[in-house]
């Protein structure tokens, strides 16, 4: 639940900044839906699983997948000035198609699993979102974007801990460690996004900053 709390808190903090651009509105919604999804999975999927069927986990997974979609869309908006309208529409189509495929796999009982959730998150966050954020960073050298990307990269740590079941104690197992790391990871992503939204995006001092060019 600590991850859900961090996400919901981050959403309201970003709302306070009040940036109207789609990049920042989508970014805030990433935290909102991730918080709802993780929270639902924690309460229903674990705490009260004895009262419901495992299929109920799909509700939390669906909310989390919407969070992934909004992060992709936010990242796309960040590079929109450098994209042709047709290129932007192609990316949007790919993102929505990815989400529809995910939903189809989650709805169908034989393919519904946490592996599908991990695959969707990996493609959407570590794949598309990180690549688009890096492209924008290569143009602007924004410190906030560097922090945001660091948070995305560090997202591999909780995934590795969970996959390899790394535990410190039977009362602090891989589930606990991965959730603590995930909460820290989400906080780092929030810090980067908040710095961008607050207009505190001083460029890193590098020798060359490429100019924007249409793709």
Q: Can you characterise this structure?
A:
By secondary structure, the chain is mainly alpha-helical. The protein has one domain. Helix content is 74%, strand content 0%. It is globular and about 50 Å long. The relative contact order is 0.13. Residues 206-215 have low confidence and may be disordered.
Distance between the termini: 42 Å
Helix/sheet category: mainly alpha
Helix content: over 70%
Number of domains: 1
Largest beta-sheet details = none
Topology order in helix (H) and strand (E) letters? HHHHHHHH
Count the strands?
0
Gyration radius over CA: 18 Å
Approximate shape: globular
How many helices? The count is 8
**Strand fraction:** under 5%
Task: Summarize model confidence as the mean pLDDT.
Answer: 87
Stretches with pLDDT under 50, minimum 5 residues:
206-215
Secondary structure layout plus pairing:
Blueprint: H1 2-17, H2 22-47, H3 57-79, H4 85-107, H5 114-140, H6 143-154, H7 156-163, H8 174-197
Notable characteristics:
215 residues, mainly alpha, disordered C terminus
Can you give me a brief rundown of this structure?
With 215 residues, the chain is mostly helical.
